[in-house]
Each structure stands twice: as C-alpha cells, then as structure tokens.
Predict the structure.
Amino acid sequence: MQKKFSSDRFDPLSTVRDALSRRHFIKGVIAAGTVAGAAGLVTGCSDSSDSSGGAAGSVERLITVNVNGKARPVDVMPNETLAHTLRNKLGLTGTKIGCDRGSCGACTVMIDGVTNNSCSVLTHTLRGANVITVEGVGGANGELHPIQQAMIEELAPQCGFCTPGQVVSGVSLLQRNPNPTREEVRYALAGNLCRCGAYNNYVDAIVKAAGSA
Ligand code: FES
Ligand code: FES
C-alpha cells in the first residue's frame, strides 16, 4: 500500500533554508557592529547617540584657542573634543584619555582657571579661552612645578597614566588655596581615578608642595 505523507511532514530543504537565513541574519548583525565601531574610530566619537547627525561632524572650522599661553589656530570638527584636539592636532600628548566619557579625570586640564575633563568639552566652544595642560604648569624655562617635583620625591606615580590629571588638579587647588588640609587635597583629587591605587602618594606630594607653589 502506498504510504501517504501528512502536510506538516519533515522537510529537510526548509530546515537548510532556515539555517541559511539565520546565518545571514547573524552575519548582518556582526557587520553592522563592525561598521558602527569603525565609524566611531573615524570620528573619534565612542558614543553612537550623537544627535548632531553624520553631516554635522564633517566640516572643520578654523578657530584659535590659547593653550599654555600661546595662541594656537587649529581646524576643528563641530563634534571634536578638546582632548582629541590637544593630543592629535596640537601634539600635547601629556593629556591622557582613559574613559573618554568624563568619568576618570585622566584628561583633566584647566580652562580659564577651572579644572575640566577635556574629553567632555567641545573644542569649538573655546574660542578665546585659556587652556592650561600639564605641559604648561611648570616654569617658562622648563622648571618643574613644585607639585611635579614633590611627586618625584614621593615616588607618587605607579604606572603614571593618571599622573597628568592628578598634577593639573593639584595645581588648580594650590592656585585657589595655597595651604590646603589633607582632606581638602583629597576632595580636590576626588575626580581623578587611579587604577594603581596610589592615592595616598599623590596626596602626600601635594601636601608637601603646598606653600612652595
Ligand atoms: S578620559 Fe576624560 S574623564 Fe576619563
Ligand atoms: S599611577 Fe597608574 S593609574 Fe594612577
């Protein structure tokens, strides 16, 4: 007797088709992620939620920013951060980028005397502003700032990645308050994370430098 097949019988061809379409789907997801990551590298922006759209970041404008006492003309994108401009266009690589999102303080600079995370400030907003980076805190002839000297003497840095930010925060503190208490130093450095845990070393150095800065 001839065997009859039901309408929902196993269809090996359809199983193969399903597997192929899933594979295409997964490949598509991975490809999209790769493209998004590459776009982040090109624009220097790690946040894909940029509301300005792609075209807004594509036109450079010439502005002049005062950096460490010198007028520095520079072409900047509308979505370009000060940390990027300093490091990649002005050659001031003392400013470090750790998190690139305002959390770690490695990129700390002073803008008009106030400490800021340079990864979270758009350069084009700084026309005419005075920016001081770690390269600009010492003397005119290359002398170290007393905080830098004290950090050497106290062996404060470990890996050193956070050190420029710690220096700039310390210098800013001593400009406002030349004789801070240990607690006030801790408070001033609160935004500067140190993965090596060398917090006490940095506080020791700034307390040592206080009064001579
Ligand atoms: S790199 Fe700017 S706060 Fe971390
Ligand atoms: S010394 Fe290594 S992160 Fe601070």
Observations:
- The radius of gyration is 26 Å.
- The mean pLDDT is 81.
- Residues 12-43 form the longest helix (32 residues).
- The CA atoms of residues 147 and 209 lie 5 Å apart.
